[in-house]
Amino acid sequence: MGKLTSMLGLLLTHPLEFRTLVQFYLYHETKRDITAQQEHPTSGWDRTSMRRCWEFLDLTSRSFAAVIKELEGDLARTICMYYLIMRGLDTIEDDMTIPDEKKQPILRQFHELTVTPGWNFTENGPDEKDRHLLLEYHIIVEEVNRLAPQYKTVILDICQKMENGMADYAHKAATNGTVYLETIADYDLYCHYVAGLVGEGLTRIWSASGKEASFLCDQLELANSMGLLLQKTNIIRDFREDVEERHMYEKGDVEHATWIQSGMVLDALRHACDSLDYLRLLKNQSVFVFCAVPVSMAMATLALCFMNPEMFQRNIKIRKAEAAQLIMRSTNTREVALIFREYARKIHYKAKPHDPNFLKISVMCCKIEQWCEQNFPSFVMLSERGPTYDSADKRTAIFRAEEKRVAERLAADPRNAPLPQDLFPWELAAYVVGAMLLMLGLSALIVWVMLKFIPQA
């Protein structure tokens, strides 16, 4: 009833958004049903332990759960377990009620505990929202040990790298009372440990599955950059919550909070082109959608937060209709590039000249615009009949002139000269008739020789 009431309210207040949501619910079909009988061998739904893992996924992340379940084959189950392991590790690291001397050995051994049958963790604080995951972690352990060796190796390797980074920062926070990141390099390293490594692991899993090219696992810089874009966007979005929990990332008085936020958005935008480069390398549609939807929403979130004073008062997020539209659009690299360009233009439009970061933000938005133009020129329009060209764009005239020059150069080459159409059939006929006469003459000669020199019986 509540959902129906909210939809009716949306119809009256935001009719266009109402139409978008109706289109999404009617036409956006789920690509895969992990509960279907034919999916059981790869999704593991026929096992009680794996069904519980899927429930954990729904409880911990509704947004990621939807795209994970649509991955092809055993990738869905593998990424589900990968996500739950990272969530369990993050839950221990985030829990401020656990003493540092207790937290350190658990964090640094988490990759071993993850494959130790029967292991659970019961010492989370009562207010930790994902403590239920660790209370039943033995179920996670059981399913992790069932993963294919090539996936299990990657996941445990990433877990070990991440747990050591998290343990270092947790110890620093416990020792100094807070973690202050003085430089952009420090900020990047922190985001690398909590998100960049996740992107590295995903990339290695894509390659190990055979659904993506083997060379993709070497593109770890691009994978890390895309992870940093997502993490930095989350940090910007959760600014108010972090202030309330006294997790400070920047020092500065409230008067300059807007410029600080502007600098953080600028820093996040420098990963946009790398994210687009990464998406261009993907060939599997389910993997592409899994990666494209979060980064599209990240760009929308950056545009929403930029120069928005409300983010200092409350947590803000993009509207459901906008999220639904981004999900429907994020199906190919060209469309995602156009999404990036749209939000980069919104950010540029909202930028203020007296912002110390104004010029740098303008340059960064122009880099996104330039990437789109280099890879998907705007004067080329795609249609069912093939590519067409915008006659109002001056580049179309240049393209036509170049096309004409190429045609003239080919025509001037004697090797490309066409055969004379009026003589060609007669020449062919002469060859055919000559061959036939030659064959008749040879046949007559053979008969004459036989009659002349072979005596008759």
Summary of the model, kept short:
The protein is mainly α and 457 residues long. It has helices at residues 2-13, 15-27, 40-43, 48-60, 62-69, 75-94, 100-108, 110-113, 131-135, 137-144, 149-176, 184-209, 220-237, 239-244, 257-269, 272-280, 285-305, 320-329, 333-350, 358-375, 394-412, 424-453, and strands at residues 380-383, 386-389.
State which percent range the strand residues make up. Answer: under 5%
Q: Using the alpha-carbon principal axes, give the shape.
A: extended
Secondary structural class: mainly alpha
Using DSSP, what is the number of strands? Answer: 2
Round the mean pLDDT to the nearest integer and report it. Answer: 86
Written as H for each helix and E for each strand, in order along the chain, the element string is HHHHHHHHHHHHHHHHHHHHEEHH
Computed over alpha carbons, the radius of gyration is: 32 Å
Strand order of the largest sheet: 1-2
- Roughly how many Å apart are the termini? 111 Å
Uncertain spans, ≥5 residues at pLDDT below 50? 247-252
User: Can you summarize the main beta sheet?
Assistant: 2 strands, antiparallel
Helix content: 55-70%
Contiguous helical run count? 22
Describe this structure in words.
- The structure is a single chain.
- The protein is an all-alpha fold and 457 residues long.
- Helices cover 68% and strands 2% of the residues.
- The chain has 22 helices and 2 strands.
- Strand 1 and strand 2 form a beta hairpin.
- Helix 4 packs across helix 5 (62-69) and helix 12 (184-209) packs across helix 13.
